[in-house]
Design brief:
By secondary structure, this protein is an alpha/beta fold. It folds into three domains: about 120 residues, NAD(P)-binding Rossmann-like Domain (Rossmann fold, 3-Layer(aba) Sandwich), CATH 3.40.50; about 190 residues, NAD(P)-binding Rossmann-like Domain (Rossmann fold, 3-Layer(aba) Sandwich); about 80 residues, Alpha-Beta Plaits (2-Layer Sandwich), CATH 3.30.70.260. It is built from 13 helices and 16 strands. The strands form three sheets. It has a seven-stranded parallel β-sheet with strand order 8-7-6-9-10-11-12, with helices on both faces. The relative contact order is 0.14.
Length: about 425
Amino acid sequence: MSYKIRTLNNISPVGLERFPAEHYTVGDDVAEPDAIILRSHNMHAMAIPDSVRAIGRAGAGVNNIPVPTLTERGVPVFNAPGANANAVKELVVAAMFLAARNILQAWSYVQALETSGSELKKQVEAGKKQFKGTELPGKTLGVVGLGAVGVKVANCACDLGMSVVGFDPGITVNNAWRMRPSVAHSLSVEELLSHADFVSLHVPLAESTAGLINAERLQLMPKRAVLLNFSRAEIVDEDAVLAALESGQLRYYVCDFPSARLRGHERVIALPHLGASTDAAEDNCAVMVADQLRDYLEAGNIRNSVNFPEAYLEPKESAWRIAICNANVPNMVGQISTALAHAGVNISDLLNKSRGEIAYTLVDADSAVPPAVLEEIRAIEGVLGLRFLGRTALPIHARRHSSNNQTREVTSDHGWPQG
């Protein structure tokens, strides 16, 4: 088998090297690709070829991808949750120090001085008092969203001597185990905001989280608190944040999403979307999503998809595999099994998983499946797509991909209160 992968951004070569050259054609000009791998490219306005069987986002957020449309076409969208978590954590912690010690303002003051010698020293000593800051130990950090990044931020703040309180209605068991026992649990966003000197946001952008931090909630925060947003710009109400800065309710707003109104404000530190901009993070994301695409294209397995269920069935040398995407309706597996049984094809293994309105089935047969039987299954009402993968344990899939051992580390976007 051979596959074609189209890239829409500059993807780390470390990740692209995961596609064996003898079986994969990879490039930004590939026609009729089997899969697309991208970072921030906006896919909403592009025509996605009918040949595409999967999309891989080398990062966590998928706002730039038309996920509902692809779901209707039976195309899974993969991301790389947790792969850039350390990079984002380090930037959040750096942002807390920038705000706590007024570092950027102090630096700008020194840069603007035009004297030298003893006069420079005099002005430095005279000016430093206006930049007196605060120390982090003893202060309270509220972390809204305890996914891969949020947990790392919470743990690091504990190590810095801060009191930490977290809120996440969809925290996973794995992330709960990774979190320091000293992190307190808040029952609501409102409760968290009322106790936090610093608040860091780490939630996905969804209908329930847009405008999560609004004027009413900002008023619950202690006077002169610091708000940090390294999730998405739309998580906060920008008008409300600017008003809170003007009134002194907020001391600083630190974010990764500049806007014309935020830029230049003396109490806003707006960075140019640096969260995942490290070589290590870009490599990790590209490797993770490349391995997931390979596992799906070659063996039909699904790991870390934002719109399909997790589905992994160990490839076997003796089996021929069919991968089927269908509407999550009754008797679908029964119809598939009946079609194979009528053709005398024995099922050696079967996996059926569902997520919302989508179901996904992997069928391993003891013998090759006749094309007519595959067409019969494709014709079943509700089947969105079918791929006959043949012998999935042949050399192209001989090694186990690292993605097989990845655990999904992403905060659920269900259960979040409306902003």
